[in-house]
C-alpha cells in the first residue's frame, strides 16, 4: 500500500502531499478541475504504466515548468518514483533512490483503474472492450500487450506484402509468426476470463472469436488450423481487416443477477457490474501475487443509486486492496471506514485521516 504520495509540478499540483496513514480507502473530493483525477493518474504511473489517461509526458508537466515527479513511500518503506524532464524522450524510474527500469515498478505496485470512459464499456465498439480486457489480462501475463502489438504489426506487414506481390516464402514466414502470436493472445484471454470468473459472482466474462474458438475446440491444433485459414484466404484481399482473428474478437459480460447481457441493462447496473469486475480482478491479483493491489476509481459513485453505493462501499471495505476514489461530494462517501479524506481545490490538497 501507499503510505505517502508526493507530487511535484504534476498537472495543476505545484507541490502536494498525501499521508494515507495506512488507510485502505483514500477518498479524494472537490469541484471539477481541482486536480482529483491527476492524483489517480500519478498513482497509475507509479506502476510503470503510461498512466490511466495515456497522455504525453509534456502535457502532464504543470504549465510553465520543465517536468514533473511522482514519488511514493510504500508500506514496506520502499520508495518509488517516476520523473520526467523536458527534452527527455522517456520517463525515468527510481527505486529507493537508485535508477530503475519502468517495468521494475510493476513488481512493487500493482494498479488497476476505472475512469468515466469505461462507463460505456458494454455498449461501445468491440475494440474498446478488447483493449480494456487485454489490459487486465496483461497484469498477469507480462508478454500479452507486446503480443497484441506484434500481431497488429505482422498483419500490416502481411497486407503490404500481398498488395505488392511479395515473395510467397516471405508471406509463408509471416503467416507462421501470425498464427503463433494469435493463438498465444487467444489463450491468454481465455485463461484470464476463466480465472476472473472464479472471483466474480454477480457477472460472468466470456470471450468469443475465431481463434479463441479454435483454441477451445482444437487445443494444440489451433495454431495449425489458423495457419491453414490464413493460407486459404491469402488471395482474397491484402487488407488485414478483411481477415478474421484476435483483432476482431469480443468480450461479453453477463449480469447473473438480472439474467441479461450487461449491454441490455441500465447505465447504473452496468456501472455496478463494472465495479464488481474490478474488485474481482483485484482479488485475483492478490491471490496470484500475494500483493495488495491499488484500485483507482475515478468518479466512483457516478450512476449509482443509494442501494448500489451501499453495496459498493461494503465491497470496498472488504477488499484486500487499497482503494483511491474520487467524487464531487464527500458526504456520499461518509459510510466508508478506514479512510483518509483528501479535499482538492485549485491544485491545493487538504489531507484528513479518519479512524
Cross-sheet strand order for the largest sheet:
2-1-4-5-6-7
CATH topology of the largest domain: Rossmann fold
> What would you call the shape?
globular
Helicity level, as a percent range? 25-40%
CATH architecture of the largest domain: 3-Layer(aba) Sandwich
Order of helices and strands: EEEHHEEEEHEHHHEHHEEHEHEEE
Oligomer: single chain
- Work out the number of β strands: 15
Unreliable sequence segments: none
The H-level CATH homologous superfamily of the largest domain, spelled out, is: P-loop containing nucleotide triphosphate hydrolases
In round numbers, the mean pLDDT is 89
State the distance separating the first and last CA atoms. 17 Å
Supply the number of structural domains: 2
Count of discrete alpha- or pi-helical segments spanning 4 or more residues: 10
Level-1 CATH class name of the largest domain: Alpha Beta
Tell me the structural class.
Answer: alpha/beta
Question: TL;DR?
Answer:
The chain is about 40% helix and about 25% strand. By secondary structure, the protein is of the alpha/beta class.
